[in-house]
Design a protein that fits this description.
Elements: E1 2-11, E2 24-40, E3 44-50, E4 56-63, H1 75-90, E5 100-107, H2 117-129, H3 133-138, H4 146-151, E6 157-160, E7 167-170, E8 181-185, H5 192-200, H6 204-222, H7 227-245, H8 250-254, E9 262-264, E10 272-276, H9 283-287, E11 293-295, H10 296-299
Parallel strand pairs: 3-5
Antiparallel strand pairs: 1-2, 2-5, 2-6, 3-4, 6-7, 8-10, 8-11, 9-10
Helix pairs in contact: 1-2, 6-7
């Protein structure tokens, strides 16, 4: 049996602008997704996807070799087939064996958490197929690739996709004030494609000018030496990006009376936000109906 494992991700800075080359601070999460591959003696690829509670949420099988004309009315089946076929196009030897496979993909976090169920799958399949994960991402889902970088990183990273391959710098990000950092799940799944489409509708010259500004802000946030400074920088980041996107901040929409910082992570409006405060102050969110709250230590690798 071969086993592959990839970490989930959270994007702390330069959301959207990372697409145009702004340096971003990204954090791999402790929880991720594994892929277990076993050989068996027929020409079938048997696939099973398992949730964090060990329940099976998806099963299918494909006949090998993969067909160029395969079409399924089931979106999940079609998406998986597209990924496998794209990997085979990058490496014709992939799945080109007389044996079949039993494959189990196991997710460690809730599907709706937005920590990268797709990116961790792409990363695992790319390593199984021995292909470039960034190319596989480009040929399937698209995106900046920071999530692919997080998948195999054991520390926080600076990520920049201005180069090929992307520039990835492992950094030490271990804030002394991390006991005051919490991740709150909004349970409002954001469609990444729609978010990116909105971003792409903005004036490209304006976006180009902002790349340098957000790169500088990323470095400042990563090196902030106090909670007060960290909060100030995050607030400025939210304010500037809100103005650029012509979209109100999540704090102004939902949490105007919260006394501390709330920072969107990745696509605005959904999944997790970062909130600062004490354990007692974070109870505010439960009183608002947001019960999934994860401490920094429990979330970040």
């Amino acid at each position: 049996m071969s086993t592959y494992y990839s970490h989930g991700k959270l994007l702390l800075t330069s959301e959207y602008l990372v697409l145009d080359g702004a340096k971003a601070l990204a954090l791999p999460t402790k929880k991720g997704q594994s892929l277990d591959v076993r050989f068996h003696n027929d020409n079938k690829l048997q696939w099973q996807s398992v949730l964090e509670d060990t329940s099976v949420w998806f099963e299918t099988s494909f006949t090998l070799p993969l067909s160029d004309s395969f079409i399924s009315q089931d979106d999940v089946i079609q998406r998986l087939y597209t990924i496998l076929k794209a990997a085979q196009q990058l490496n014709p030897n992939f799945l080109n064996t007389p044996q079949g496979f039993n494959v189990t993909s196991t997710l460690e976090f809730a599907q709706n958490w937005g920590l990268g169920s797709s990116s961790t799958l792409i990363s695992n399949i790319a390593r199984w197929a021995k292909v470039n994960p960034y190319t596989l991402l480009k040929n399937t889902f698209g995106g900046s690739g920071y999530d692919i970088a997080c998948a195999t990183s054991n520390s926080a990273i600076f990520y920049n996709n201005n180069t090929k391959p992307p520039f990835i710098e492992s950094i030490v990000f271990d804030p002394s004030f991390k006991a005051h950092l919490f991740f709150v799940h909004l349970n409002r799944k954001q469609n990444s494609r729609n978010s990116i489409a909105h971003y792409r509708s903005l004036d490209p010259d304006t976006l180009k000018n902002e790349v340098t500004n957000f790169t500088e802000r990323t470095i400042q946030i990563a090196t902030a030496n106090s909670l007060d400074n960290f909060e100030r920088l995050l607030n400025e980041h939210e304010k500037d990006l809100s103005k650029l996107l012509k979209t109100p901040t999540i704090k102004s929409q939902l949490f105007q009376d919260y006394p501390h910082t709330i920072k969107s992570l990745g696509g605005w409006g959904g999944d997790f936000v970062l909130a600062t405060g004490t354990q007692k102050e974070i109870e505010y969110f439960k009183n608002k109906g947001f019960y999934t709250i994860v401490s920094y230590n429990d979330m970040i690798l």
